[in-house]
Design brief:
Length: 228
């Protein structure tokens, strides 16, 4: 009998509702060093992107900022964000229920964020026990979405081939990265009026829908194996 599919979840915006907190902290910090940024810019243009990529794009538009000043900015911003995550963070609606329903599957978190931010977020929302040590950060792998190598790294560390993994991600950069890695991809599209799911990915609009979709994928996989 085949092993159950390995499920690889993005963190921010997929498991936890951290993006409004992150966007607010970025607005305060970036604007203070002369890089105009509104919280709405994150959700509208930069959702899921690496922080340094966002900074580089803002510098291209508005002018360079001293590197030492940027280093202090990022350190202070992340410290402030971690404090807010620990007290104000909530799970994405339906995430807790979906993870409980899928408890028989191996699961990992694959995020462009630092591992301490991932862990803080999961602890704050009582999700840490679901994933244990299976937290895969781009900062540790030195590989950021949309490059597929982060998802490939996570699959290898979980002991699975990419084709036996399902990636669940709300951001287009993550969806494209997992598709390029050769995985089945489910796009949690919480903004269907504003965002289009990339070709090749499945779409859900709520985490409550996820167990049914995973169940159908398992059924199709079992059928294909029996006919092989």
């Amino acid at each position: 009998m085949a092993r159950p599919l390995c499920l690889l979840f993005d963190c921010d915006g997929t498991l936890v509702d951290s993006e409004p907190l992150l966007a607010a902290e970025m607005e305060t910090s970036l604007s203070a060093v002369g890089l105009p940024f509104r919280a709405a810019d994150y959700t509208g243009e930069f959702r899921g992107a690496r922080f340094r990529h966002i900074v580089a794009e803002l510098e291209r538009r508005h002018g360079s900022v001293d590197a030492d000043r940027l280093e202090v900015l990022e350190r202070d911003m992340r410290a402030n964000l971690n404090r807010r995550l620990a007290t104000d963070l909530t799970p994405i609606t339906g995430a807790t229920e979906a993870l409980a329903a899928l408890a028989g599957h191996p699961m990992g978190v694959v995020s462009n964020g630092p591992v301490n931010k991932i862990r803080t977020s999961l602890i704050a929302t009582d999700l840490e026990a679901v994933f244990g040590r299976h937290l895969f950060s781009a900062y540790e792998a030195q590989c950021w979405k949309p490059d597929p190598c982060l998802f490939r790294h996570a699959a290898a560390m979980m002991g699975y081939a990419p084709e036996d993994c399902v990636a669940i991600d709300d951001a287009i950069v993550g969806v494209k990265a997992a598709l390029a890695a050769g995985m089945t991809v489910i796009h949690l599209n919480r903004f269907p009026d504003a965002e289009q799911t990339p070709e090749g990915a499945l779409t859900i609009t709520s985490m409550f829908q996820l167990p049914r979709v995973i169940g159908r994928l398992e059924q199709d996989r079992t059928l294909a194996t029996s006919q092989a």
